[in-house]
Design brief:
Radius of gyration: 14 Å
Distance between the termini: 45 Å
Strand content: under 5%
Largest sheet: none
Number of strands: 0
Structural class: mainly alpha
Length: 62
């Protein structure tokens, strides 16, 4: 198994967070339309765990 450096791990975590944010933002926009800058900012400040919970909640959102 290959050794993963701290820098690589941080890059991986950031990439995962950015991809999750992008997906959640796209799903929200599709569901409710254009999002305000404030709402986008709040979503971008969420952790990956919080983003995943929001994604699950979007399944039931009407």
């Amino acid at each position: 198994m290959r050794y993963v450096t701290t820098g690589e791990r941080i890059s991986y975590d950031r990439g995962k967070q950015e991809q999750t944010q992008t997906l959640i933002l796209r799903l929200l926009q599709r569901r409710v339309g254009k999002l305000s800058l404030l709402l986008r900012s709040h979503i971008q400040s969420l952790t990956v765990s919080e983003l995943e919970e929001l994604g699950e909640a979007l399944l039931d959102f009407k």
